Amino acid sequence: MKKWFTMMVLALCALTLTACGGGSGTKSSGDSPTPAQKHEAPAKKDAAPAGKRALVVYFSRADENYNVGYIEKGNTKILAEIIAEATGADTFEIVPAQPYPKEYTPATEIAKKEKNENARPEIVGTMPDVSKYDVIFLGYPIWWGDLPMPCYTFFDKVKLEGKTIAPFCTHEGSGLSGTDRYIADATKAKVTGALEMKGTTAQKNQGEAKKEVMEWLKKLGYVK
Ligand SMILES: Cc1cc2nc3c(=O)[nH]c(=O)nc-3n(C[C@H](O)[C@H](O)[C@H](O)COP(=O)(O)O)c2cc1C
Predict the structure, then answer these.
(1) 27 inside domain
(2) Which domain holds residue 48?
(3) Which of 82, 176, 210, 222 has a 20 to 30 Å separation from 200 between CA atoms?
(4) CB 80 within 8 A of CB 87
(5) Does 22 fall in a domain?
(6) What is the mean pLDDT of residues 68-74?
(7) Which segments of 47-178 does DSSP mark as H helices, in order?
(8) pLDDT over 90 (residue 171)
(9) Using CA positions, which residue lies closest to atom 6 of ligand 1?
(10) Which helix (H) or strand (E) holds 108?
(11) What CATH number is associated with residue 104?
């Protein structure tokens, strides 16, 4: 299982190297995850200043994951909580109606099938009223070089056109993988510079994770 994932990550790295400098805005429809984008996109000038109303929306999966074993709190959720605390934001978790398997490999297989089918897995709960917020911090893990498909279910349910979305993601080598553009395409929102971080850093080195989150929030103007 670990070997399988190592091979996937190696393949991702190889894709990254071959794709460097040629990053298109087009979404990959193939089997392999999309090439990594290692650097943050530049912050837009229209990012809201500190003091605006903020909502953190995130998807995160606990249980068994790559390089961290069985975890009680998902890697992305750790970042979501840091952001919510730093900005005073409300939070909304995207929760699939059908939980993913606790074991890592079966979870990757279902996620891959959902991506290939462009599925919209059902999500639970009442969707938030985003009209109340000036900025939405959107957190997710990279799954097969993309956002987990329940995030797209959220985009279909909640009108985000014209809103400001600040994306943050965790991954194990793929980086942002162009997901900031996928979000812009799917929502027609204004997408700011994104934060990308290895899930292992979020899970195992929370001091460093907090430092990187605070630097990102400062750069965007959401904390002083
Ligand atoms: C279904 C699945 C697919 C994944 N695909 C990728 C990938 O394409 N590239 C990558 O770098 N990491 C991939 N990972 C690793 C996760 O992005 C990483 O462990 C992340 O931090 C998990 O965050 P979470 O605990 O908030 O769900 C994948 C993990 C899972 C479970």
Answers:
(1) no
(2) 2-12+35-220
(3) 222
(4) no
(5) no
(6) 92
(7) 75-87, 104-116, 149-157
(8) yes
(9) 143
(10) helix 104-116
(11) 3.40.50.360
* pLDDT at 75 (0 to 100): 98
Q: What percent of the chain has pLDDT over 90?
A: 75
15 — phi, psi (to 5°)? -60, -40
Ligand 1, pocket-test mutation among 171, 197, 212, most atoms within 8 A of CB: 171
Are the CB atoms for 34 and 145 separated by under 8 Å? yes
**Is 170 part of any domain?**
yes
216 C-alpha to ligand 1 centroid (Å): 21
pLDDT, one tens digit per residue, over 88-137 is: 999 999 999 999 999 999 999 999 999 999 999 999 999 999 999 999 99
Which residue's CA is the nearest one to ligand 1's atom 29? 143
| Digit-coded pLDDT (tens) for 12-65 | 433 333 333 223 333 443 343 333 333 344 444 444 455 579 999 999 999 999
Q: Considering its fold, how many domains does the chain have in total?
A: 1
Identify each DSSP E strand in 45-184 by its residue range: 54-58, 63-65, 69-71, 90-93, 135-141, 164-171
Question: Residues lining ligand 1, judged by CB closer than 6 Å?
Answer: 12, 33, 60-61, 65-66, 74-77, 107-108, 111, 141-145, 170-174, 199
Nearest CA residue ID for atom 5, ligand 1 = 143
CA 109 to chain centre: 19
